[in-house]
Please model this.
Amino acid sequence: MAVVAELQEQIMDALGDGEQKTKPQLAKEIPGLSGAHLASALRVLKREGRIIVGSDGSKRVYRLPGATRG
Model:
């Protein structure tokens, strides 16, 4: 579970620039990442309200609460 907690912090850092990002964009920014770990960490962050999940019209995107869309 420590891997997921560490990954959550890396995701929060990657989204810290205020831009919304897709799962592939997040995977590129975080080296040595398992797709399953990324999905688990994103689910937990969403459930805790630490990130917001939306859509850019064709893909699911993730962003921090209060970050601008686009």
In short: The chain has three helices and two strands.
